[in-house]
Amino acid sequence: MLQVTYFQKSISFRYGYPNWTGSALQLVDQMVETCGPQSVEVTREVLMDLNRTDLAERLSETILRLKEGPSRSLELGSSEKMMKDSSGWTKLEPEVNSTDEDEASTYSLKSEAGNFECSVSGLRWVCQEKVSFKYQFCSSEEPMKRMEMMKYMPAGPLIDITVISGKLSEVYLPHWICIDDIPKVSQKFAVLHIDDCGDVVEKVSEVTSSHVKLCEPVFSPRAVLMKMGFPVKIHCNVLIYSKAYASCTVLHVYLTPLDPALKETIDKDNKEYKFILTPRPNNHLKMHQHFNLTAGITAKIRPEKITLSNSSQSQRSIFFDVRFKNPISDFDLTLSQLNKGKRNSQYEVWSYEILKEQATGGPSSENGSRDTARPSAGETAQYTTVDGEHFVDKHRTELINRVNCVADILDQLFGKKVIQQAIYDEIRKIRTTQEQMRELFSGPLNAAGPRGKEVFYRILEKKEKYLIEELKGKK
User: Fold this and answer.
1) Is the pLDDT of residue 17 over 50?
2) Homologous superfamily of domain range 385-472
3) How far is the C-alpha of 425 from the C-alpha of 108, rounded, in Å?
4) Where in the chain is the domain with CATH 2.60.40.2660?
5) More confident call, 446 vs 406
6) How far apart are CA 170 and CA 164, in angstroms?
7) Residue scoring higher pLDDT (214 or 386)
8) Which residues contact 260 (CB under 8 A, 6 or more apart)?
9) What is the DSSP string of 295-347?
10) At what angle do helices 38-49 and 53-68 cross, to 10 degrees?
């Protein structure tokens, strides 16, 4: 598989097909030395094609190690310095003003001096004094048609910013591109600036994993652009809207770029539906790939597949329409990527448990919640203890050191409301699975109490079956 994939990607072995020996870690080191760091990412993609997501997740840890190490091949020169995202941004909730359903909402923000981030748009700013400003999302359909002629595609929302008082010394526009494997990344990005004279495309000097920096900005409608001509992966959202009728329930399920402007528009398209808050896909997804949706109940799902694109118009109008008789229990929705040229080949990229109350518009569906950490159907109310101590506390050290599928566990804990969105996002930012597990134990699980730990234990029974069976056998 590696030989075929390397050929397709025009990446060649430097010294012929190597004779790899030794331990797994030594094998990876030999592979990187022989074939270059890209070989590790290609291997991860091959494992996903083989439906071995478990091995792909383990390999992801190695990819992180390589990217952080001194031999990283994609390290940029000083003229293309990569700025690291940090946690030093204070999130602020904007004041929202909607006067007309057909017009874009206006978001107003005020801050003291410091570094801040808008919780809705992801827009970041740095100021040395008190500031007040507002912004609106603009329709990017017409501007992006013009940009396509210049071989650019959208990489972030089109935002019109107006400063009311004070001065913004730096502004960071959000983007949804995964930049991990893009060499000379600053040369691939640009910023669209629309003024009275028309369109201006500006070069950028600094790019982070989620933003493009503007120094001493002049404000007008602005958007991040990306050069066309090579495959990219993007950060994505899964948006779900539900409406219950007398005899059936309807879900609208969208797969979109991480575009707050597009979400605002889709919210208005589904104003008669209830929005169900869900976590995002764990991994970045490839553009122009096909995806299908399956449900853990008998349902009619149309269309059979959708294509992930950057066109706001197509992403707004194309979605999975899921129709089924009103459910009597919770059920799963699973999104899978279809592999081109491989018959019946696909792999899961996202899964989420939909609660009965969410789907049918019950009392807790308004905000997508239910009683925190309430055991779902089939979970016992008797807490699993060992010598008077809960099982997960008793085996805390082993679980921290040996649990690998932390991302899947976080998704399910979030789905069952053991952890909230802010905690989920913070833990996902942590680099290693061991540190993620330590953070999970030290904060959210302690706060959730026995009920939360019981839900955690039941998830581990499914995700780490053999580890839990081994630990059960220990005295």
Assistant:
1) no
2) Death Domain, Fas (1.10.533.10)
3) 24
4) 233-360
5) 406
6) 16
7) 214
8) 120, 121, 122, 137, 157, 174
9) ESS--EEESS-EE--S-HHHHHH--EEEEESPPSS-EEEEEEEEPTTSTT-EE
10) 170
Look at domain 233-360 and name its CATH class.
mainly beta
From CA 193, how far away is CA 200, in angstroms rounded?
A: 5
Helix (H) or strand (E) holding 3, with range, is helix 2-8
Distance from the Cα of residue 429 to its chain's centroid:
11
**What is the pLDDT confidence band of residue 182, given thresholds at 50, 70 and 90?**
confident
Higher pLDDT, 276 or 35: 276
Tens-place pLDDT, residues 185-211: 888 999 998 877 788 888 887 899 999
Share of the chain above pLDDT 70, in %: 74
d(CA 207, CA 440): 31
Give the pLDDT score at 29: 62
Annotate 61-87 with b (16+ C-beta within 10 A) or e (fewer).
ebbeebbeeeeeebeeeeebeeeeeee
* Parts of the chain belonging to CATH 2.60.220: 90-227
Which pLDDT band holds residue 215 (cuts at 50, 70, 90)?
confident
Residue type at 280?
R
| Contact by Cβ (8 Å): 91, 66 | no
* Residues paired with residue 240 on neighbouring β-strands, in sequence order: 253, 276
Cα–Cα dist 47/51, whole Å? 6
Give the per-residue pLDDT at 376: 39
DSSP 283: S
Task: Give, for 25, the enclosing helix (H) or strand (E).
Answer: helix 24-35
Out of 32-36, 84-88, 124-128, 167-171, least confident range: 84-88
Mean pLDDT (the chain) is: 78
- Where does the chain hold its CATH 1.10.533.10 domain(s)? 385-472
Hey, what amino acid is at 105?
Answer: S
Measured CA to CA in angstroms, residue 465 lies from 47, 59, 407, 458 at distances of: 21, 20, 16, 10
Q: Is CATH 2.60.220 the classification given to domain 90-227?
A: yes
DSSP 77: -
Beta strands in 93-210 (DSSP E): 95-97, 106-111, 114-118, 124-127, 131-137, 152-154, 159-165, 170-174, 189-195, 198-203
Q: Is the pTM of this model over 0.70?
A: no
Find the mean pLDDT for residues 88-98: 86
